[in-house]
Amino acid sequence: MFSLGKLAQQAINVTGVQIKARQADGIMRHQELESRVRTALSADQADYLRNQIHRQYPEAELGRYVYHPSTVPGSRRYYQKQYTNLLALKSDLGRNPDWFLTVTEDLNNPTILASIPPGADPLDHPDVVARVWDELWAKIADDVVKKGRLGKCLAAAIVRGESTYAEAGQREA
């Protein structure tokens, strides 16, 4: 990809932004349908928020409450669904889990630095960071779940948050 030049990189960034825009449109359509079924805020809650806003900012208006479906990683409903799934897994096993792993990415990872031009900032290459993260994540999951590096794995639940590096890179482009 680096040999393709800036025009190709820009085309990839534009395509990524278009994909995110389509996803946002789908979420908005979902919210419109959901708002017909039930309201996100009760009238009392809306009145309370409106009064609080007008105390500090008399000219301001209460905006529309936006919620994401449970299919959007990082949203409140996504984590509620994942938590419910984890509780069900605990109930099926009849005991608490033995391991809880949290994994983060180091932007100075040698694989990332080797994949970007010398002296470049990894945050300017979210595609590389996301690719290396996915490779590392797959290797860790394979080692722990399939190969049993920490002992025999009876059950596994994987909760992944949204990749903030890719989002930040696409917003800046």
Tell me what you see in this structure.
The structure is a single chain. The chain is mainly α and 173 residues long. It has two domains: 1-67, no CATH class; 69-173, no CATH class. Helices cover 58% and strands 0% of the residues. It has six helices and no strands. The protein has helices at residues 6-37, 43-56, 76-93, 110-115, 126-146, 164-172.
In DSSP terms (H or I, runs of 4 or more residues), the helix count works out at: 6
Q: Using the alpha-carbon principal axes, give the shape.
A: flat
SSE order: HHHHHH
Query: What's the number of domains?
Result: 2
Topology, element by element:
Blueprint: H1 6-37, H2 43-56, H3 76-93, H4 110-115, H5 126-146, H6 164-172
What would the keywords be for this entry?
6 helices, 173 residues, flat, mainly alpha, 2 domains, disordered C terminus
Report a brief summary of the structure.
The protein is mainly α and 173 residues long. 58% of the residues lie in helices and 0% in strands. It folds into two domains: 67 residues, no CATH class; 105 residues, no CATH class.
